[in-house]
Specification:
Length: about 190
C-alpha cells in the first residue's frame, strides 16, 4: 500500500512488513535488503575512492543477480543442512506487549557525538504490537539525561494527545525513570 507524500519511511516499512505472511517471505526481503546495502556500500566506495559515477539501477540489478547466484549455489549444496537466517540472529530481550487493552510508548534519544544536537523518538503501539503513532523531534541539549527526559516528556505528551487511560511508557535511562516516579528534583 502506497500512501501520499506524507508517508513516512517508518509507516511505509510497517505497511510492507504487514503484507508479508510468512517467515520465509520476511527472510527473503531481509536478505535482499542486505545485498542491496552491500552493493550501495561498494558503489559508494568506488565513487569516493575511484571517482566512478553511481548508476542506481545498475546497483540494484547487480544486487539482485548476486542474491540469485548465492541462492542457486546454496540450493545446489547437497547434504548441507539449511539454517534459517533468523536462527543466526542472537536472541535478546525484545519488546514486551502491554496488558490486553493497554498501550505502550517506547521513547529514546540519540545525541550527535561531540555536539548538543539531539533527536528524540517515541512509538505508540497497542497490545498486539501494532504501530499506532510515532513522533520525532530535534532538540538542543546539554546532557544525555536532559535528552532522555525530553524523550520521556514527548512520550507523555503523545499519551495525552491520544487521551490514553492505560499506557506504559518505556525508556532505557534508569535515572530518568527514577525521576519520573519520584518527587526528587533533577540535578
Amino acid at each position: 500500500m502506497v500512501e501520499g507524500p506524507s508517508c513516512s519511511v517508518l509507516r511505509w516499512s510497517c505497511n510492507l512488513l504487514e503484507q508479508l505472511h510468512s517467515v520465509s517471505e520476511w527472510e527473503n526481503l531481509l536478505i535482499f535488503v542486505v545485498w542491496i546495502g552491500w552493493y550501495i556500500w561498494t558503489d559508494r566506495n568506488d565513487l569516493v575512492f575511484n571517482h566512478h559515477p553511481i548508476e542506481p539501477s545498475s546497483t540494484l540489478y547487480r544486487a539482485r543477480v548476486a542474491k540469485e547466484e548465492f541462492n542457486s549455489a546454496s540450493a545446489s549444496g547437497a547434504g548441507r543442512q539449511h539454517q534459517s537466517l533468523l536462527d543466526c540472529i542472537p536472541r535478546v530481550a525484545g519488546w514486551q506487549a502491554p496488558n490486553t487493552g493497554s498501550f505502550k510508548i517506547n521513547c529514546d534519544v540519540a545525541i550527535k557525538k561531540g555536539s548538543h544536537s539531539a533527536s528524540t523518538a517515541v512509538l505508540l503501539r497497542d497490545d498486539r504490537g501494532n504501530l499506532i503513532d510515532g513522533r520525532t523531534q530535534r532538540w538542543r541539549v546539554n546532557s544525555s539525561l536532559q535528552g532522555e527526559a525530553l524523550a520521556c516528556r514527548s512520550a507523555c505528551q503523545l499519551a495525552v494527545a491520544w487521551n490514553l487511560n492505560s499506557v506504559e511508557i518505556e525508556g532505557d535511562n534508569k535515572d530518568v525513570i527514577n525521576l519520573c516516579v519520584s518527587e526528587d528534583t533533577p540535578s
